[in-house]
Write a structure and sequence with these properties.
Length: about 775
């Protein structure tokens, strides 16, 4: 067969197109933040912190860590742990055929089922290879994923460890894992990430309908998309003021831009575009009102002049803002009027112009009656009016179109009548209703273990909750209610068969006694403050007293080794007494092999940082009972002073629990010093404090959150679950010992769940890390 030149060209183009279509995508490196969750068949994992660039994901009794390139750094299920240092490496953008290899150290436990097998560490070659691009079927759905093989070659024993993981760019996470060892296999049972729903626009500040007294205002936008974001644009009152373009698209883009507001009402629009051209918008309406203390305009004598034109206004009668509709076709109705004459009216839907009307000559009023067709999901409708003088006024409507759908509860995991060999599991379900999902609860054996109540009910909600099964049959009930009051339930019965315990081998000869280790603690609770300007706290003293009783009781601390400072104790929590307790009492008492615990419940407060050390511009303090809010520098305890105190304590293990917060926001254990505006607080100061080896700090909440007190508990949420955990609830592996890691994982999960249930948002944070497992309490009867 002979091809003519034009035919040959067309054939080559067709072959090139086919090859391009068959080529797997090049996945970009994702990033994760605290609170990101992976709902896996072996547990509900949450990203709890970042240690030296390593992501730490934890579930009760389990953990995995990923390096900055998403190579494996650590995997453990209970006592069996494998560490790889430095972590495996992956080359990004990810594509089939890429391979990496480097030498490192592999730390491993004894091999299960192998007599006389011992754990240890060895030099190892750590290799990774991207083997294939394929369809992967998991409980969460079918996704396209890269199959990646990680191999650790033990250079001492000449044996290999091979693990396979499947990474799905669409969900920005590993969706399946397989292993030849006792780490088992798992799969994602529900996708619990915002990015899986398409374009996700997150505006840190300002809030919608905010009123501000300053013309300059920061605007912080983060956009995510599994497909990739190609453009993010910011417009103010109809004029684009900033934009960021990425030709190939990125999974995440950030745009930070200060904006100058005009007096009165301002409309800020964020328009984001994906690689396939899909656009989405988010709006904020901000009203700038000049401060009453500002300079008054100069007084002028009255001189009659031309009449002032009425203000330019856009009045929409339809659709209503935040409307949720069950039909795609709607009408945009209203009137544009005012100004010195309307020159133009433009209507856009989701960033695309659908009509433009130029008025020649300019009209005093322009009626609107325009049919539009919504797309499924969220829609942003913007009407922009321009008068002959160039003045611009906008009106924005956010409208959601959801096809009529009844309330349904689809339990993705576990399967009904399943039999499992592990007591820790997870419940995952997707609840949908076109009327909006108002509330979902998960119950295990008649006891409620999780609840989600949505202030703005979504049409689809992913529900996930960790559960601990009892031996034998277990009943799991997922119950959902929509905004119309309709309730639906789904029940799953799952049987837990505990593993059989092998015969106990003869007891080994007793090891020589270890050096005696003492435990020391300082417990502080401040509720009453000498200054009337500092809000009183109701439950901080009960918190401290409960911690004190737990330490000298179930935790086994010697009574003389625990110092209590509260409003009701003989020694009050003044600045001098707190510094003496931390720097002198602990500094003189604790020896190298001892363990030190410090607990503080009370106010934290920010103040303007004049040193320039803090990224957020705020110095942070713990507030003693005799603090002066006008002079925190000389009357409160700077957080950086803890570094000095840490240096005075010889003990190699120091753990600090802080039930306080630093945002300066109302409603929690914090306030702002005078002349200090509450704002976004970062955790650089915590990172500085825990750089020293053997120091760890657990805070009740993230730096931008508040620590909640609940009358129904009689405590702060954090302290309440801290006490329960030390008494035994945090003994996740049932070995009779509550370790620091177990305690943090338990408290983090319980506080997060409880705060959500009461309409709050509180996530404990741990910074720093101690070598090995640090036992904090022995559980009686085990």
């Amino acid at each position: 067969m002979t091809l003519r030149p034009m035919g040959l060209l067309l054939a080559l183009l067709a072959l090139a197109t086919t090859a391009a279509a068959a080529e797997p995508p090049r996945a970009e490196l994702p990033t994760y933040g605290p609170g990101d969750r992976w709902v896996r068949s072996d547990g509900l994992y949450e990203m709890v912190r970042i240690d030296d660039g390593v992501y730490v994901f934890a579930a009760p009794g389990r953990e995995f860590r990923l390096g900055r390139t998403l190579g494996l750094a650590r995997i453990n299920r209970g006592p069996a742990a494998h560490d790889f240092s430095p972590p495996f490496e992956l080359k990004w953008p990810l594509k089939v055929g890429e391979r990496t290899s480097h030498r490192g150290v592999w730390r491993y436990p004894p091999r299960p089922g192998v007599p006389d097998s011992r754990g240890g560490h060895s030099p190892a070659t750590l290799s990774s290879s991207v083997e294939a691009w394929e369809d992967v079927q998991v409980r969460g759905g079918t996704v396209k994923a890269f199959r990646i093989e990680f191999t650790a070659h033990n250079e001492r024993t000449n044996r290999d460890l091979t693990l396979q993981l499947w990474y799905a760019p669409e969900t920005r996470q590993y969706v399946k894992g397989a292993s030849e060892i006792n780490l088992g296999s798992w799969e994602v049972v529900a996708f619990d990430r915002p990015g899986t729903a398409g374009l996700d626009i997150m505006i840190a500040e300002p809030r919608d309908q905010a009123r501000v007294s300053e013309p300059m205002h920061p605007f912080d936008v983060r956009v995510r998309s599994a497909k990739g974001v190609t453009r993010v644009a910011l417009s103010l009152n109809g004029a684009e003021i900033a934009a960021r373009d990425e030709r190939g698209g990125r999974p995440e883009m950030v745009l930070r831009q200060p904006i100058r507001l005009r007096e009165g009402r301002n409309v800020v629009l964020v328009t984001a575009t994906e690689t396939d051209g899909t656009s989405r918008q988010e709006s904020r309406v901000i009203t700038y009102e000049r401060s009453a203390t500002g300079a008054a305009p100069p007084t002028r004598s009255f001189t009659p002049g031309p009449a002032v034109a009425p203000p330019l206004t856009v009045a929409l009668s339809s659709p209503a803002d935040r409307a949720r509709l069950e039909q795609a076709a709607i009408a945009v109705a209203g009137v544009v009027s005012g100004g010195r004459g309307i020159a133009r009216v433009t209507v856009t839907l989701n960033g695309s112009e659908i009509t433009r009307r130029d008025e020649t000559p300019p009209a005093r009023a322009v009626p609107l009656n325009l049919p539009v067709t919504l797309r499924e999901g969220q829609n942003t409708l913007v009407v922009t009016a321009t008068d002959v003088d160039g003045g611009v006024q906008q009106e924005v409507r956010a409208v959601e179109y959801a096809r009529p759908a009844p309330l349904t509860v689809a339990v993705r995991y576990p399967e009904d009548r399943a039999r499992v060999a592990e007591e820790s599991s997870v419940v995952a379900a997707v609840v949908t209703s076109s009327k909006g999902v108002a509330r979902v609860t998960v119950s295990l054996n008649g006891i409620e273990v999780a609840q989600q109540a949505e202030r703005t009910p979504p049409t689809s909600l992913v529900v996930s909750a960790p559960v601990t099964l009892r031996a034998g049959a277990n009943a799991i009930v997922v119950s959902a209610t929509d905004t119309a009051g309709t309730t639906r339930q789904e029940v799953r019965t799952i049987t837990y068969d505990p593993p059989r315990v092998a015969a106990t081998p003869p007891a080994a000869a007793p090891a020589p006694p270890a050096p005696a280790r003492n435990q020391w603690a300082v417990v502080i609770g401040v509720g009453q403050y000498e200054s009337a300007a500092i809000p009183r706290l109701r439950y901080t003293v009960p918190d401290a007293e409960a911690i004190h009783q737990t330490l000298i009781g179930p935790a086994g601390f010697k009574k003389d080794n625990v110092l209590l400072l509260t409003d009701r104790s003989e020694r009050k929590p003044t600045l001098r007494n707190i510094k003496w307790a931390l720097g002198t009492f602990l500094g003189r008492s604790a020896q190298k092999d001892d363990t030190v615990v410090i607990f503080f419940a009370g106010h934290g407060a920010p103040e303007v940082d004049t040193r320039g050390l803090e990224r957020d511009g705020l110095a942070k303090y713990l507030i003693p009972s005799d603090a002066d809010p006008d002079d925190l520098y000389s009357t409160a305890l700077p957080m950086d002073e803890l570094q000095t105190i840490f240096g005075r304590i010889e003990a190699e293990r120091v753990v600090v629990f802080l039930d306080a917060c630093y945002s300066g926001a109302a409603g929690g254990r914090t306030f702002a010093a005078k002349k200090t505006r509450a704002g976004t607080v970062d955790d650089l100061f915590l990172e500085r404090l825990t750089r020293s080896k053997g120091r760890a700090i657990i805070t009740a909440s993230r730096t931008s959150e508040v620590s909640i007190e609940l009358p129904e508990l009689g405590h702060g949420i954090f302290s309440y679950y801290l006490v329960n955990g030390l008494k035994g609830a945090a003994d996740l592996n049932r070995d009779g010992i509550v370790s620091l890691q177990e305690l943090y994982e338990y408290v983090e999960q319980q506080v997060t769940t409880k705060s959500r249930a009461v309409g709050g948002n509180q996530h404990p944070v741990m910074k720093g890390e101690l070598e090995g497992a640090l036992p904090l309490a022995k559980v009686r009867g085990r």
